[in-house]
Amino acid sequence: MTFEARSVAEWVKAARQAFAAAGIDDPPTDARVLVAGVLGLSPTDMILQGDRVPDGTQAERLAASIERRCNREPVHRILGRREFYGMDLAVSAGTLEPRPDTEILVDRALPIIEDIVKARGAARVLDIGTGTGAIALAILKHCPEVLVVGSDISPDALATAQSNANMHDVADRFTPLESHWFDAVTGTFDVILSNPPYIRTGVIEELSPEVRLFDPMAALDGGADGLDAYRAIAGKAGDHLAEDGWIGLEIGFDQRVDVTNIFTGAGFTLVDKASDYGGQDRVLMFRRAAER
Q1: Is 57 left (phi over 0), alpha (psi -120 to 50) or beta?
Q2: Bridge partners of residue 148, in order along the sequence
Q3: Which residues contact 260 (CB under 8 A, 6 or more apart)?
Q4: Are 3 and 11 in contact (CB under 8 A)?
Q5: Domains of the chain, first to last
Q6: Which residues, 6+ apart, have CB-to-CB distance to 175 below 8 Å?
Q7: What pTM was computed for the model?
Q8: What are the backbone angles phi and psi of residue 94, rounded to the nearest 5°?
Q9: pLDDT tens, residue by residue, 240-269
Q10: Each residue of 127-162: pLDDT tens digit?
């Protein structure tokens, strides 16, 4: 794909046209975000510098990035970063892109963690399948008294999470841990959080190319019924959860009843639930009552 010299505004127009021809869902948004990201421009800069002509190196990067997006690679994977809970996070091949719906899990968990800190002076949190570290780092940024262990089976993901922790100055309270579920986890935690793989194996081929071709399969595939991760967490969480401890989970839109049954069967009580921005079930918060 080649482009003649053109201004920032013309690059946005060219990208929009290319994306529309490629069948991209939202060409205008992707065009603005991609061009701004490649050039390092804010939304205001995009307006004020619309007539500026990028130099030759920038033009080459823009052309290559537009071609990658036309091949269905997601914009934020091309840019190598995505915002989550007010933080700019690096993404890598071994991580999911942090998505806005996952912020709802953080929203529900933060008041609980803050109450624990008020009562005990500190809190320990386990983030299972930490990926970029999005959930863990959001908690750490808002709660300076908290320590978080972020576990993942992917060394690439753990390296990315550690890099993000360094970038946001919370590395001293973040511990990356390579572990398959609870295999390498030790100790107990006040709160266990997870956005686990929950897509049924049989429908993965129906996902958009942006997800199917570029997200790590281990972070998507939840087994035949999409519930394997929840069974694994429910089966061992009790061994690592403090008395009165909490478990917070992101779920698929049609999994509330099944996941609730799995956890109530393991001795937990559903205390809170939340929908995503589209009104679909997205977060469940369980608690294990202290023994009396």
Answers
A1: alpha
A2: 125, 174
A3: 270, 284
A4: yes
A5: 8-79 (1.10.8), 94-287 (3.40.50.150)
A6: 147, 148, 149, 150
A7: 0.94
A8: -90, 5
A9: 999 899 999 999 999 999 999 999 999 999
A10: 999 999 999 999 999 999 999 999 999 999 999 999
